[in-house]
Design a protein that fits this description.
The structure is a homodimer. Chain A is an alpha/beta fold. Chain A contains 36 helices and 31 strands. In chain A, the strands form six sheets. Chain A has an eight-stranded mixed β-sheet with strand order 12-22-21-14-15-16-17-13. The first copy, chain A, has an eight-stranded parallel barrel with strand order 24-25-26-27-28-29-30-31, surrounded by six helices. Chain A has a five-stranded antiparallel β-sheet with strand order 1-2-5-3-4, with helices on both faces. In chain A, α5 packs parallel to α7, α6 packs antiparallel against α7 and α23 packs parallel to α27. The longest helix of chain A is centred in the middle third of the chain and has 25 residues. At the A-B interface, α26, α28, α29, α31 and α33 of A face α26, α28, α29, α31 and α33 of B.
Amino acid sequence: MKRKYVYFFSKKHSDGNKEMKNLLGGKGAGLAEMASIGLPVPAGFTITTEVCDLYYKNNRQYPAGLDKEVDENMRRLEKEVGKKFGDAADPLLVSVRSGAPLSMPGMMETILNLGLNDRSVAGLAAKTGNRRFALDAYRRFIMMYGSTAKGIDREEFNHAFEMLKSQRTRQRLHLPSHVKVSDTDVNDVELEELVKEYKAIYKRNIGKEFPQDPREQLWGSVDAVFGSWMAEKAVTYRRVEKIKGVVGTAVNVQQMVFGNMGAKSGTGVCFTRDPNSGENTFYGDYLVNAQGEDVVAGIRTPIKLSEFEKADPKSYKQLVDVRRILERHFKDMQDLEFTVEEGRLYMLQCRTGKRSPASSFRMAVDMVHEKLIRKEDAILRIKDKDIEGIFYPIIDPDQKDEMKRNFLVSGIDAVPGAACGKVVFNAKDAESAAAKGEMVILVRKETSPEDVGGMHAAQGILTATGGKTSHAAVVARGWGKCCIVGCEKLNINYEKEELSVGDIVVKKGEEITLNGSTGQVYRGALRLIKPEPPASFKTLMSWVDKTRAIKVRTNADTPYDAAKAVELGAEGIGLCRTEHMFFDTEERRLAIQEMIVADTLPGRIEALARLLPFQKEDFKGIFKAMNGFPVTIRLIDPPLHEFVPHTEEKQIQLADKIGVPFEKVRLRVEQLHEANPMLGHRGCRLCITYPEILDMQVRAIIEAACECSAEGVHVFPEIMIPLTIDKKELQILENRTRQVADAIIREKKVKLKYLVGTMIEVPRAALLADQIAEVAEFFSFGTNDLTQMTMGISRDDAGKFLPDYVDEKKAGVFADDPFQSLDQAGVGMLVKMGIEKGRRTKPGLKIGICGEHGGEAKSVEFCCRAGMNYVSCSPFRVPIARLAAAQAEIKKNMAKTPAKKAAVKKAVKKAKPAKKGKKK
Amino acid sequence: MKRKYVYFFSKKHSDGNKEMKNLLGGKGAGLAEMASIGLPVPAGFTITTEVCDLYYKNNRQYPAGLDKEVDENMRRLEKEVGKKFGDAADPLLVSVRSGAPLSMPGMMETILNLGLNDRSVAGLAAKTGNRRFALDAYRRFIMMYGSTAKGIDREEFNHAFEMLKSQRTRQRLHLPSHVKVSDTDVNDVELEELVKEYKAIYKRNIGKEFPQDPREQLWGSVDAVFGSWMAEKAVTYRRVEKIKGVVGTAVNVQQMVFGNMGAKSGTGVCFTRDPNSGENTFYGDYLVNAQGEDVVAGIRTPIKLSEFEKADPKSYKQLVDVRRILERHFKDMQDLEFTVEEGRLYMLQCRTGKRSPASSFRMAVDMVHEKLIRKEDAILRIKDKDIEGIFYPIIDPDQKDEMKRNFLVSGIDAVPGAACGKVVFNAKDAESAAAKGEMVILVRKETSPEDVGGMHAAQGILTATGGKTSHAAVVARGWGKCCIVGCEKLNINYEKEELSVGDIVVKKGEEITLNGSTGQVYRGALRLIKPEPPASFKTLMSWVDKTRAIKVRTNADTPYDAAKAVELGAEGIGLCRTEHMFFDTEERRLAIQEMIVADTLPGRIEALARLLPFQKEDFKGIFKAMNGFPVTIRLIDPPLHEFVPHTEEKQIQLADKIGVPFEKVRLRVEQLHEANPMLGHRGCRLCITYPEILDMQVRAIIEAACECSAEGVHVFPEIMIPLTIDKKELQILENRTRQVADAIIREKKVKLKYLVGTMIEVPRAALLADQIAEVAEFFSFGTNDLTQMTMGISRDDAGKFLPDYVDEKKAGVFADDPFQSLDQAGVGMLVKMGIEKGRRTKPGLKIGICGEHGGEAKSVEFCCRAGMNYVSCSPFRVPIARLAAAQAEIKKNMAKTPAKKAAVKKAVKKAKPAKKGKKK
């Protein structure tokens, strides 16, 4: 069957509807839908996005038969309107607008008044009895066509108009030089002159006369719309916004209506509710006696809707009716464009309105209370960005100019939010400045565990290297601290204590501002604001918690983070990293370093013994914060070289403090160097080599648990062995763990249950999960490392090539950065195998995820489908994970009713309004 | 049913047979078998290895009922022999010997004459009419029991004997001081004195009288045998020789026969064929009038068998008959121990004889020609070590003392063979010394591609870090060049140009010798010898090639290596690494470095254009060497930082030569630094970022192929894309490859077929092999990297912990180093998945392996079973792979006949003689 390329819409009949966004674009589908429910929409037709796709696939050739189909629809439009396209006496004029499935800046904007030429302008003048209006429409059309469709610099047209106004019009009206000549001062004679001048400009630039054939005008405009799909601005926008799988834009050709026919005419944009507060009030702007482009151009200041009501209550009344009809119809807040032509309202666009994060919650909750939508719809409608938006500070958006002026450089948006402070270049400076109450931004080439103290003290972190799961990003995310990484243009000079970007130099102590949500860095201190979660947030999240089927835990290493996470809804700790604890104080640091440098077992045991009380205290604090919830504690994981100093100066200091020769420290550090530390001597391999570390850590955990338990705290420790690759390896460590733990429990005479399980983070562990499950009491998928190894990509080095892999314009191999959103095809296959095999051995095996993916919506959905018991993520991602888990559950339930599958798919894909006729 | 712990053997009846080696040990099974085929074996019984196992499992307690079973067998022995154990008048004397399933030095040796005591020694004297003999037997027994079973220093006994000889005997015989007193000079009176003295030594050391109860003597000896199983020497031997799965040793108790009863008595060891040359001649030593221990002690020089024949033709004749019977029975060369007691031959041991590598081939081929075995048996009998042994130079084994004296340090035996030369510490020195004709050993902490020239120039390579698949090992193996890596005790000081081990310092220019087969390093120059492959090698390998079903290719990067590999039987190149070519000359190095430093596309293209002719010439040479065989060429693989200099000095030089500022070079090198280069910007990721590199390489390959083809060379290029992780990624590069290649082919008007395929070396590629096979025309499993990523183990860093994982005494997680022998459970699962999924998409998909495993016997067998089309390995491993492939095929065919399965299993497991009654 021949594909249909053109869809007609009018009050009488519309070929399309609102479900056809992908084919007709957002604007086209909205117009078709509005027309079909009887709203006043000027008739017209839409050329589909598929044509755009075919156009590019076929080397910028249109599919056969398109011209015929356009002609047919034009004839249908003429019939509907009762005017002829190109008619000299009473011409049918049309607008041509682009309209992609998603709102997409950077593409061709509107061309109005198309169909005018030297002859029909006279007909229009006669028909409307308004020669000035007709000439004004013509000169606008020439300018729009010339600039928008043909790429002539609009300034040339503006300049000619200015010259006309400042010379001929000013002269004619004898205006003094300090009075500005307004557009409306120009008369028809002058406009006629201007039209001539515009046509001359056109010819000078294009080398041809301005086209008089309306059909040529039309195709020129259609070409321009499709051409703009691949314009750099549009491509960049799609890349930045990660818009994929959209094949092209549609073109909308629509009968012109005129908002510039006098005081009873005008044009406006409005939202059916307040997009900032979310309040259920009508919100928008109106410009009397104007065409749409005047609003955009910002030449005149529009009036509020309340003033519109006063000025033209009849027209306003029509608009209020439309508002009511559309909200009821679409069951969501709509963003509308309209024109009033001599007292008659015409709708030119309707689409789901963008809104602030806080108002997303308010609208969703209000609409449930108004019985417009169901709770499930409300939950599906919230996006992770909405949650981020109500927790993290942001740069006050009123500072647009300052932001433009002070923009310094752009990196990878690792942790959202904003921060500002004085630049420091090392952790020590950050800590001492913070101790003095100063706000600082820690700027490093990269961070390491040694920097953690300084990172914590800083307001925000900026690094020159690394990706979203680099050390800096992971640690900062755990704290919800603004962080920008992989800022490759940043040149950091530690000796001079300055950073530079090109010629711009920022010295230590100068202020900068980070926008972690976009990755942008600014010089100077911009004003920050901190949003407060609205009351509706709490309501919605209570629905979320009732809906979801899997638990949400947190990754937390301190009592503070643990408490914070519980506040944010965490139901346990899925990953407590014990190694960060070694850096908390000088004393701890020294003990671990001495342990590493020691070359005898007694030496190591002695140093470890000094760490024991610290770790125990940390665990007690965490157990107390998590009273009643399980706490998964991972034994030491990073390679030992992460704990020792790497500069000669610091090595000398260390040697001094622990009383060994410098050379010994230096040699040990050199010995510890690894070519690929990620695949090196780390994880449980350390405990195979140095079981005394395991002994100390297990002792600290179990003693802490026993003591808390004696104080009445409900403790559920889960000891987790990292980097397991073999059942026998795990068996050795599990045995040793139980020996240490059981002896303490017997000695303390406490009733304490604990589990011993493992991370599944090496491909081999997933492949052999059936064997490993014979020993492990739980699995926790460490998908950060599992992704690195399964894909062979080091997250610290990925910045050099992974962006190209995710960039559709470059290689476009992956839809998402696999360190942000789980690679479901590859890594996900191993996760599913691991779960399936693990449960084959132990049907009730408790399984969770503790990688960064545990806080990312699509990955959480995957974990739900794969049958995990919980996800775990950093405290600030807990609400996002809760939401994602609930959304996953809703989708699962919807999918269970096969009849609804298609509907679900759509609803889900777009997180769009609820279906027609569905009631609670 | 009760387990049987003791197995009796005698001419009349034997409980065991030769198949029961695991239970009875090698010695016990041999004795039982010889007895049962009617050979003269003194009767006796064997306590099984299972008893040893139970003894250790049960805290050094024997299983219940063992003592009763031993008593029963002792009574049976008494009955058979007609003497009583402990009888004062005519005592039954026995020997007690250990005997594990495998020959195992370090365990308890023989105790002879057990059963003698103060009373029975008189009975023995009376019975034999030889008081001196009886007393001599008794004093020997006390010494052996005291030292061997009870751990008394044998020197104490020797000293007492020496004192006796040098004082009393010398006095009695009035011997002058320069004449040595011989053992046989000592008379019965003196011996009686000596027995007293020995018993006193015993009491002094043990605190108890020498046991007079023969039963106590017996159990003391049995305890000692089982105790020696866990003696440090034995445990170390098993670890070093990688002997696993052997549960314990057996104990053999056997009636004594006496080789020391006069001129018609004696004892000897012999081989049924010459173990050095492999010649079918009788080979051995005989000692007249001696007990076995005299042979071992080396006190007297034995005579050759030919002299034995002359001296005692009757006894010799008996031995020749036994030789004939045993070879026909066991169908393999046997290693025999025997004793002649007053003209009667007794067999004390028979086992398959160890032989030199060259003689392995000769014997196997001869026995086929003699119709003793089938060709398949001959093939199964050859070991990979045999092949290694006939290709690599070795240290002349006559230098045992020098080796002991000059031993310096021990590392990991990366590439077998031996090398000696002057120490140099950098590649440049190696090259310039080699240019002057000097032999050098390159000593480095680790090597990198920059060192390749120097590595090639050196006789051998020694590194302080790295494992068997580190850069040094892999590159050296490709050349069959002696290499020792991971020599962690080695302290290298580049500035001082010296290495040290503890206090010993070796300076640049001093000589050292490497034994790459053992990993041992010696100071000074030891004499090397180079074996020559015997004629029988060629014969056997021709059978091998007719037998095997899969192809054997080679990994070769130069025309020289390619030609060498063809000589060694390679049938194509499975992996030609193109990056080594970049280091061949200064000019090439500069071009690649300039390409890397260039920050514009034209700059890179220009630098690459200079590399093109070099690569093309290399490929032409390789194609010519491989005329008629396929050549798989891998596009650039290592990360770019491997190509640039890392010292400031060299960076300044580079900057100078290519005319860019030093700072630019420095910055670029810094930018290229990676945290985990193994998982970094390398492999096909480079061609995604810099497609111009692919363009140049494909052009070089295809132009070379076209030109060779025009010269009449048969060229089959297979272009291989490394590190693929996704179908789309491969698709992009495959498209580009074909565009470049097809254009050249069209232009040159040559008929050329080429394939485009990929390495499967990242877990994700194996998981998604079905998708990747939609694009790839062949797969080559890169199991080095696949192992690293699947197991999460960096081969360069594994030296720190992997040895513990493979050491049974430590963690013992893995049976083999997974970088040597493929981890079949984990990595192998991915390989099988990859093959299965790949062929599901493309049933005829050509699949091979090009990792180091392609030259390791067990891994090759796995590849055959998994259905690969070929394996590929370094040139010197080609014969080993050919052999392994043939052996795998034979095992597969044998396994196909279900009835034979059990027999096959045994035959195969032990690579032992063919089955009884099986004829060609």
